[in-house]
Amino acid sequence: MVASTSAGSKVKRSRDPLSPKPILDRRLLEEALAERGIELKPSRIDQFYQLLHRQHYPPLDEFVATYKRREKIRLAGKGSADTDSTYSVTVDENRPFPNAVSARTTKLNIHRLPKALLAFLSDPSNGFVTLTSTVVESRLSSDGTTTKLAVQLQDGHVVETVIMRHHSPEGSRATLCVSSQVGCAMGCTFCATGTMGIRGNLCQGEILEQIVHANHILAAEALERECEAPAAVVVVEDEVDAEDVTNENNDSENTERRKEKKKRRQQQQQKGDRNHDLVRNVVFMGMGEPLNNYANVVAACKGLVDCRRWNLRHERVTVSTVGVTPKIRKFTDEMPELALALSLHAPNQEARSAIVPAAKAYPIEGLIDALDNHMMSGFADKKIHVLNATEQEGKQDEGNTVGGYSEEQRKSASKRKRAMIEYVMLEGETSSFECAHQLGKLCENRRLIVNLIPYNQTDVKDKLRCPPREHIEKFQDIVRSYGSFCYIRKTMGADIAGACGQLVVEKEQNASSPVANDIEDIGRSGKQGNEKGGKTSKKVARKSESSSLADESSANDSETDYGGGSAEMEAWIKPLAIATALAAGAFAISTMFILTKRRR
Fold first, then answer.
1. 561: alpha, beta or left, given left = phi > 0 and alpha = psi -120 to 50?
2. What is the per-residue pLDDT across 22-44, written as a single tens digit (0 to 9) for each?
3. SS3 164
4. Quick check: 359 and 350 in contact, CB under 8 A?
5. For 297, which DSSP code?
6. CA 272 to chain centre
7. In 164-309, which ranges are continuous DSSP H helix?
8. Read out DSSP for 435-481?
9. DSSP letter at 583?
């Protein structure tokens, strides 16, 4: 049940203690083992997480049973569990979870877990489960590229996770947007999550569970496509003589080995690399300010780049922040390889403070400097001497040394890691061409990437809109004229409440309406919610000459609901019409009776 569904019930403003605890939270697991006097080397815990990943995160008792069965087969000398005829591989275990490292089945990759750890995992009273959260709602966009998940935590709170699929001739990939907090304390005026306030942090296990849920969905889709596709026909060339197979040194090669390699390569090409269908990029751009939950976010990032589990490349994990300067510098010290994005949204302090209240504590100049230092962290020891004011007067034209780094150093750093600025396009001062010049000047010669984000209409206090496409493109051209990389982000999920916090806020607003008592009321309640959204969209459309860039499909869908009317109103129309007709008839008869009596 989604949090807060009874009429008049209050929304929870704080989090409950974790019970049970998520096994993916390494800190909690290590503390529990220490309380029981179980001392393990860090490498043993790494091995456990690798094996858990290879089994695709089953319940703990099932994990232990499978491990023991495989170990028994291995010790009996019957080969690996995956090839033994007595071991049945379920459909679930065929999911393409393992990467090239975690799925390796060589002798070096077979781990024997300590008996004490296995006993702990088998104990029902250990207080841990594999997954503490569940997906309570899933919305797929009309074009099939975006799925928004409402993930309910064990204490009833709901956070959002968004799967964004990208298709190209080279193959498909997926980017996952994850949440790090329930609500947010930053209070951005244009963000639905900002209207919730802060209710609590997610532990590292709850953050990682969002990746598990997303990969389960993507893996199921990949298997479904494979089942629907025709069976692959592998063509292998006829065997050739060993003397005809030579390498560049003109030495004879093993013909059988070459033929087997070619067969595997053709199978992979025809079947397709299923790992491309899984999450390949993770961005912390969901609910919450990641750096306000610093310890758990960093721990989760370490799990994502761990080669024994998800094995994501460092530059494919991006942490987005509204701007907490001390935490940005700390993040650079601890995780310099990860990508960092700054949600700037305005190029000067006054305009930014108006839409991002938390910005008052952190000047823009310090934020840009911290972001720049993160990108250039690999060159910190090669920093050029920064000229003081007196020296700069006569040496302004001696090359670009912004921030103490040369152009060549910046070019080299940008190839390895990019630092980004996110700028939401809102109709008004912050999207003016004057602000475009200020933004371009702020990023000039720094090789930072500027992402212009068309505003996705949300139900916030201030009625905000997105500028027309032509205006955004002109804004982009101005920023680019200063030598900055500036892109307009592709809008995805506008028709499924894709913006941060939209789905959860919508659920909480619907929860204040009367409860659906039976199955018939469930559909009616949903329709009422859609009608409300339709009225809002239509009202906005009347005020604006051009429709919102980010909400074209959402507005069209909503208008259909608005024109149709609700089932509840239709149910009352006929009785009210009959009652009105009866009342009018009674009034007419009474009037005629009175007039006739007076004439007599």
1. alpha
2. 999 999 999 999 999 999 999 99
3. strand
4. no
5. H
6. 25
7. 204-228, 255-271, 294-305
8. HHHHHHHHHTTTT-EEEEEE------SS---PPPHHHHHHHHHHHHT
9. H
Helix (H, G, I), strand (E, B) or coil at 271: helix
User: Under 8 Å CB-to-CB from 78, ≥6 apart: which residues?
Assistant: 84, 86
d(CA 347, CA 423): 9
Contact between 494 and 552 (Cβ < 8 Å)? yes
Q: Output the six-digit token pair for 109.
A: 């990759």
Under 8 Å between Cβ of 412 and 405 = no
> Tens digit of pLDDT for each residue in 416-463?
777 899 999 999 999 999 999 999 999 998 889 999 999 987 665 567
Rounded CA-CA distance 526/520 in Å is 11
- Both tokens of residue 535? 């009225």
**What is the amino acid identity at position 223?**
L
**C-alpha span between 568 and 2 (Å, rounded):** 23
The pair of three-digit structure tokens given for residue 409, joined into one six-digit string: 């150093």
Size of the chain, expressed as the number of residues it contains: 600
Neighbours of 187 (CB within 10 A): 17
Instruction: Give the separation between CA 30 and CA 111, rounded to whole angstroms.
Output: 19
If 0-12 CB within 10 Å is exposed, 13-18 middle and 19+ buried, where does residue 393 land? Answer: exposed
Q: What is the DSSP letter of 246?
A: B
Active site amino acids:
160, 500
CB 457 within 8 A of CB 551: yes
Q: Is the entire prediction scored with pTM above 0.85? A: no
Give CA 129 to chain center in angstroms: 23
